[in-house]
Amino acid sequence: MASMYFRTKRSGGFEYLQMVESHRVNGKPRQTVVATLGRLDALKETGEFDRLLRSGARLTESGMLLSAVEKGETTTIDAKRIGPPLLFERLWRDSFCRSVIEDCWADRKFEFPVERAIFLTVLHRIMDPGSDRAAEKWRAAYSIGGMDAIDLHHCTGRWPGSARNLPTNREVAWCSHQQGSDRGTTVRQTPQPLQ
């Protein structure tokens, strides 16, 4: 297997920089001068020597990176998307969805943020329609606030005791009506049927 390296060779009172290829012939090492790059003192004085080494170092870094990728030795970077969650978060807040849901569930005893689970489910349906169970994997690519306490079973909407804990459609409609008229103030009255 051939290898390349730099070496200096003295001739006529000067040192010359050479690029040499080393290989084996009949089991014995042999060197072949590929190029003589010039007098070492002149290359250093003009800065050519440093430029040559920097150029080689860049190629070496690229080569090392490609080699590491091929061997599976690279470090992966976890990048998250932020656009859709930021935009939808603002719409969610400005349309009072967040405050309506939080108000409707204020007296419930859930041990996780229900509003965040609903937010994730709705955003997932908009961005990548599919099963609610897929939202758990889908969200890994996005930076969404408040997701630390949300697990797979929270994304399905089938929470323990949900049948008796979830508000009725009438309660949700009433909360929404109150939020729209009171511009976000918290309402703690018994829901009355809408006319």
What's the gist of this structure?
The chain is of the alpha+beta class and 195 residues long. The chain has helices spanning 40-46, 48-71, 83-94, 97-104, 114-127, 134-138, 152-155, 162-165, 169-182; strands spanning 3-11, 14-25, 28-39. Strand 2 and strand 3 (28-39) form a beta hairpin.
Considering the chains and any ligands shown, give keywords for the structure:
alpha+beta, 47% helix, 195 residues, 17% strand, 9 helices
Describe this structure in words.
This protein has 195 residues and is α+β, with helices and mostly antiparallel strands. 47% of the residues lie in helices and 17% in strands. The protein has nine helices and three strands, in the order βββααααααααα. α4 crosses α9.
The ordered H/E elements are EEEHHHHHHHHH
Low-confidence spans: 159-165, 182-195
Q: Give the averaged pLDDT, no decimals.
A: 75
Tell me the Rg in angstroms: 34 Å
- So how many helices? 9
Largest pleated sheet? 3 strands, antiparallel
Give the strand line-up of the largest sheet. 1-2-3
Helix content: 40-55%
Strand residue percentage: 15-25%
- The CA-CA distance between the termini, in Å, is 88 Å
List the helices and strands and how they pair.
Blueprint: E1 3-11, E2 14-25, E3 28-39, H1 40-46, H2 48-71, H3 83-94, H4 97-104, H5 114-127, H6 134-138, H7 152-155, H8 162-165, H9 169-182
Antiparallel strand pairs: 1-2, 2-3
